[in-house]
Specification:
Structural class: alpha+beta
Strand order of the largest sheet: 7-3-4-6-1-8
Oligomer: single chain
Order of helices and strands: HHHHEEEEEEEEHHEEHEEHHEE
Number of strands: 14
Length: about 375
Amino acid sequence: MIKEIAKLPDISFIGDITLDDIKAKLVSDYQEKYQELTQQAVILKEGEPITLMLYACAVQFMQMYECVDQAGKMNFLKYAYGDFLDNLGALKGVSRQDEAAAACMVRFTLSALRPGVIAIPEGTRVTTQAADIYFATDEYAEIPSGQYSVDVRCTAMTTGTKGNGYGIGDLSVLVDPVPYVDSVTNLAITSGGLTREDDESLADRIYLAPANYSVAGPQAAYEYFVKEAYPGVADVAVTSPDANLIDIRVIGEDGQAISADTCAYIQDYLTNEQIKPMGDVVTVGSPTSQIYNISVTYYINRSDAASVASIQQAVDNAVTEYANWQAGKIGRDIEPGKLIEYIMAAGAKRVSISSPAYQTVDAGKIAKLGTRSVIYGGLEDD
């Protein structure tokens, strides 16, 4: 969840009431009413049948209180989830995005030059040698007379992430024969396949939705439209290095690069005249990498000698988590103190860092791990 939402104050529609409070109130009310009606005082003890019955009622009342509290909170972005969040988004004109299919550019090449145009119908399928997934052309295309090939965008026929990650040249089998076409090959790694949008991403877009009330221009508006175009974007950096020049950098989860094809799609989406102000020149791409190295030695308390192996594994995982955190936001400065925090939380007693040193990272860059050296220095007295 974006920090602005997470930092909102907690709220409660039932105050700080507890089950014990309800029990005490029911017993007190019973005793007061009994005295009012009979003019005799009564003290209910813990094991009495009436007390047990009141306690059973208190459990039901507490559940109702909690339902009331949840119902109230579902009207607020910080707490809403699932269908409640979908209904909250509808108030801002934002809907959850369904699964998306991976795509890439595929080149169709002739066996020889032809005197006439060769048509490639929309929906022409290509696949891998293993035939484990099928892609189809998005639109009708032609190879003009005197040319050998044409590049056509193809989309996976299966939605979700299954279609991602096929390397250049993996889509090499033409399923639906096209006269005179000798070969097909994808020109880029397939990408863009997404699962159904999760709650965190949807909440993020709902929060940014007011920026949609005008066309893009403010930074938040461009961020909104980028994530509307492709919810797989985890972080966006929008800068204007010159008048009317809008430079947008995008990354996926843990700093994963967004493919060139997807960046081109986002850029095309943003240039819609209903989104982009007149005069703005928008470019979308991946941030450049600022490489840093990790070289650390860590030590473990002697009292933890029996857990050395598990702590070593935890430290190794912690370094990976740090690298993902460092790459998870564009322009995030390189923070060696954060690395120490991760390693200490994994169970180390002491950490000695040779690198990285603190470095600032510009808005259009992302910190990427180069070499990694994590050495266990042995046990030390507590």
